[in-house]
Amino acid sequence: MNGQKTIAQIAQETNELSTLVKVLKEAGLVETLSGNQQYTVFAPSNQAFEVIGKQLDEIVANKEELKKILLYHVVPGVIHSQDIKFVKLGDIHKVKTVGGQELQINKQDDKIYVNGALVTHADIPASNGVVHIIDEVVIPSTVLQQK
């Protein structure tokens, strides 16, 4: 990879991802994103976490649920924005997350969406993968079913 810093280091040094860093620490996942294994991380911005507001406190209080939600944003391997090939506009590309669920990635008007969340900053290179900043926290259906 081109980046000299790990995904965790990039998140820690990016002001827009400070809430993500806080919840990654709560879930004990900073080490996972600091290793050598290659990942693609769809990183919710601080604003994305603000949207869910008080619900975030409830999620953080339940470490297992928090881990499921955070791992839903992590895909094994590296997916750059140019890797998302579409036969035609609106096609959906499905990828399996580290948590074992599927994320749907699609492209509309040259914008990339992950389960409806807009990628606001794509292709931030890391030594162990790539980071894409998104404007929403995406919640796996297994967590939604528990609510």
TrEMBL record:
Residues 4-138 form the FAS1 domain. GO terms for molecular function: cell adhesion molecule binding. It holds the Pfam family Fasciclin. GO terms for cellular component: extracellular matrix; extracellular space. One of its GO terms (biological process) is extracellular matrix organization. This is FAS1 domain-containing protein.
